[in-house]
Amino acid sequence: MNLSFLKNKSKSEIFMCCCSLICFFLIFFLSSQSSLPKPVKTFSGSDKIVHAFAFGSLAFTFSYWFTQDAWEEHSLKCILIVFAVTACFGISDEIHQHFVKGRDSSVYDWFADCTGAVLACALRYSIVKLRHR
Fold first, then answer.
1. Per the confidence metrics, is the pTM higher than 0.85?
2. CB atoms within 10 A of CB 110
3. What's the CA gap between 61 and 21, in Å, rounded?
4. Coiled-coil annotation: which residues (predicted)?
């Protein structure tokens, strides 16, 4: 297995790449469960915040697969790829949940997933710009 793409990455970037793999796995694992424990106090739509946080975390950690230089030179391309991968994973997650007993799929969940991805891309872009100064 050729891991040369990790050669120019810092330890923190490698850590974030590993975290993205964990996020992919955890989201898939949790969406495979028939039910999930709910916090005692919730409000209507609180699950959308959980979706946005989960997929925002995924997008943010996944963004570290691209180097700082790539973000500085090709920011729009990095943003579009990170968003597209996260959005496609969100769609596949909703389709997957459709087949899990006790779960349902919703386009609104996917909108929340995409919102989290957009916010994460904005955060990553801001960090890149601050470091570039």
1. yes
2. 18
3. 9
4. none
